[in-house]
Amino acid sequence: MSNSIDTKIIGKLAEILDKNQLTGLKYEDENCKISLSRELGAAGIVTPAPISVMPSPKTIAPVEEKEETEEVDYSNSPNAVKSPMVGVVYLSSNPDAPTYVKVGDNISTGDTVCLIEAMKTFNPVKAHKSGKVTKILVETGDPVEYGEPLIVIE
Question: What percent of the chain has pLDDT over 70?
Fold first, then answer.
């Protein structure tokens, strides 16, 4: 048997589709599968059905958006000031006060860089080294875990 599609079958199916005002029809035998469809407009006018074509997986481009800077893991960095406990971080002593440090500040060993509130007690977190603050990895009100990097000093 030939691999070509019999146009008589397609014509007959289209005739059945039109004669019975069907919106779709499928035909299958051991050699081929045919699927016909159409949409009827408000006045019964035949309009072509939308065609959806799925690209092959090889042609799909990744949709990820890259951020301007890559996320760096500071958990093992000797430059990171880490949380000494579980709690909530505060970057200033109260909402109206300026933050203890900001990016670009030069600080000394022992300077307070933030507070961690645990069990209604505010615990100061001190810089473990002198240097310039290059990153603040948390915001006021963030919950933090023990050992979580808070601030990076270079």
Answer: 74
